[in-house]
Amino acid sequence: MSRNKIGVCSINPKPERGDNDEIEHQHRSGAAPGAAVRGLCQRVKGGCSMKTAAESNPSYWPADTSEAVLDVTLGDLLRQVASEVPDCIALVEAVPVASERRRWTYRELLAGSERVARALLGRFAPGERVAVWAPNCAEWIFLQHGASLAGIVLVTVNPAFLPNELEHLLRTSGASGLFHVDVYRKNDMKAGVEAVRQRLPHLRHAISFSSWESFLAEARPDVQLPHVSPVDTVQIQYTSGTTGFPKGACLHHRGIVNASRYVALRAEFPVGGVWVNAMPLFHVGGCAVTEIGALAQRGTFVLLPAFDPGEMLEIIESERGNIALLVPTMILAMLEHPDCKRRDLSSLQTVLSGAAVVPAALVRRTMEAFGCAFSILFGQTEGNGVFTQTRLTDSPVQQSETVGTPLPCLEMKIGDPLSGEILPAGTPGEICVRGYQAMSGYWDMPEATAFALRDEGWLHTGDMGMMDAQGYLRVTGRLKEMIIRGGENIYPREIEDVLVGHPAVGDATVVGMPDERWGEVVVAIIRPVSPQSPPAEDELRNWCRERLAGYKTPVAWHFVEAFPLTASGKIRKHVLREQLRSGELETLPVPVEAKA
């Protein structure tokens, strides 16, 4: 793959509006577009530049076509790989006891997936939605490939969801079927399924993985598999819900195949290598970026039932893993585990990370402790996975302070949140992308789809960022997370990066809270390295004042043992804000001497 960096150039897009939760609500509720735009203009007061793309060094990246997009389905890719390396190990179910681990070759993975496809077509028609509510397991992988071969849309559901949350996803997706486990972490999922079925007449079949073999026995060998197009929807994945109500993003074959393949190539994942994964399969990072990335490189996909830092370290050692995608909380747990120094991790070549803020200090610490390279990813569900990624050959500054440049064949711009015009390099604005990666839309939500995908196909991500003259992207936060204090725009990411650089801070997040005088003020929530001895507030305040302008320094501090997280490791800031407003945020007791 070419490593030549493409210089930025100028285009002249049509004016666009930025993505913002308040504006989206006005748009969906029928408010005049002008009102929505006025609301956004007030929200980003003082930050709306009207400079045009004609100025030098615009924040625009043209699509790099040096690596062609594969016009194939997920099933096409599986068939191709199985024909080339039929006897190579494709899948390992890495349960804790090594002797109980199951393994499948590519020949066996294809044959098993085709059997699943035929069994599915005995109950469902191509185009119908079938949900899966289960933790990581080998059957999940076979179901994913079987559904793709049958032209059936897989709806992924977080196994931690309670029955009412499950019901919402089944109802809004119109799922005709559901595969589930009977129990997950003491949650009686079988009983939950029976309860919601009574209220979902369109749910014709609910199949437990405990009866998986009986289901497979229904497969008729004479059933013909349908033609499936690369543009067909392969999965509906619901947004992780860090900011409220989730929407079902329709992902297509072309998007998940190529986005995952490009990640593997940029990470220099070797052909026939071993990819160890503990990311949840219901998340795009687990079922697409990792599993399909391994498939595209004819590699072995080693699947953990769930993340455990000690087990992850052991499996990288015993399975000779070459690469792993780990969110920052996972990396920290592995670094702090007592087995970290005694395990042989010499096979580990690259750690990928993303989904949450990846501090520069964590990048350096990981590379030193594991003796590996590091690559940071940035993307979202609506984009079939990853948008940008750092290269292993990037400079230390680019590697630790940016999220890299766009993947091949993807167009990107930093747009003015109000007008949509391309901003000059180094100016913060909304990250917008265009190309094969954009979702088909939100399931059964035409207005939300039109709002996210507008003006000639640009996907408005709702993320704020800056692009430098070389095309490297820095993510500064979400549009709705930007804090405006006395007319000054404050980006939480900048403050969070400073806070996690403090040796006593394990993790940190920053939110804006209403204030009569300033409009909003900065509040920090800290997870100390040692909960028994959190750092003094004055110490943290001075740390920030030495590194940031005074108005960016938090005025209030809260210390917690853990953050409310999504399954992908993102901090649920809207939950923290509500807890702060209600006074329900449970914080660690701060010793008297720490307050002095």
TrEMBL record:
Residue stretches making up the AMP-binding enzyme C-terminal domain: 494-570
Keywords: Ligase
Disordered: annotated segments: 1-31
InterPro entries: AMP-bd_C, AMP-bd_C_sf, AMP-binding_CS, AMP-dep_synth/lig_dom
Compositionally biased tracts (Basic and acidic residues): 14-27
PROSITE patterns from the UniProt entry: AMP_BINDING
Record's keyword annotation contains Chloroplast: no
SUPFAM superfamilies in alphabetical order: Acetyl-CoA synthetase-like (SSF56801)
Family: Belongs to the ATP-dependent AMP-binding enzyme family.
Record-given protein name: AMP-binding protein
Organism: Variovorax rhizosphaerae
